[in-house]
Amino acid sequence: MSYIGWILIVITVAVIFLYKRMTKDPEALTSKYKATKIINIDRSKSLNLIKQALENLGFKNVTLNKEGNAFYAKTKFSMSSWTEQIEVKVDENNNETEITFMSICSLPTQIFDWGKNKRNYRKFERELDKLLNENY
C-alpha cells in the first residue's frame, strides 16, 4: 500500500512522455507562454535592443542563432518553475519588426508554472519598451 503514491507518479510521468511522443510535439503539456509584439523600427536596430533587454533582465546564456532570426536564453532558478527556456523570434515586415516571445518550462513534465512564463514576458516587454523610449 505504501508504494501506491510512487506508482501513480511513475504512471503520470510515463503518460506525459508517451503523449509527447505520440503527438510528436516535445512541448505538449509543458507549461509555456507565447506572445507577439510589433515595434516600428528596422530589424538590425531591434536585434540590439532585444539582446540588451534580455541581458538587462538577468537572463543567462543570451545567444543569437546563426540565421539571426531568434535569440535564446535561460532564466535563473526559482522555486515556482525551476528554470525556463526563452526564445525570441524576430521577423521584419515593411520597416516594422514582429517579435514573438516564448517562455517554456525547462522541466518537460511541469504542467503548471504559477504564472512565471507570463511574468517573464511582461518583464521583457517593459524592459524593451523602456529601451525603445530611451533610444528612439
3D structure, described in words:
The chain has about 140 residues and is of the alpha+beta class. The chain folds into two domains: about 30 residues; about 100 residues, Alpha-D-Glucose-1,6-Bisphosphate, Chain A, domain 4 (2-Layer Sandwich), CATH 3.30.530. It contains three helices and five strands; from the N terminus they run H-E-H-E-E-E-E-H. It has a five-stranded antiparallel beta sheet. Helix 2 packs across helix 3. The longest helix is centred in the first third of the chain and has 20 residues. It is elongated. The termini are far apart. The relative contact order is 0.20. The model has no long low-confidence stretch (mean pLDDT about 90).
Neighbour order of strands in the largest sheet: 1-5-4-3-2
CATH topology of the largest domain: Alpha-D-Glucose-1,6-Bisphosphate, Chain A, domain 4
* CATH architectural arrangement of the largest domain: 2-Layer Sandwich
Task: Look at the structure and give the CATH class of the largest domain.
Answer: Alpha Beta
Structural class assignment: alpha+beta
Say how many strands there are.
5
Domain unit count: 2
In N-to-C order, the SSE pattern is HEHEEEEH
Features:
136 residues, alpha+beta, Alpha-D-Glucose-1,6-Bisphosphate, Chain A, domain 4, 2 domains, 5-stranded antiparallel beta sheet, 3 helices, 5 strands, 40% helix, 28% strand, elongated
Can I get a quick summary?
The protein has 136 residues and is α+β, with helices and mostly antiparallel strands. The protein has helices spanning 4-23, 43-56, 116-135, and strands at 32-39, 60-64, 70-74, 84-93, 96-105.
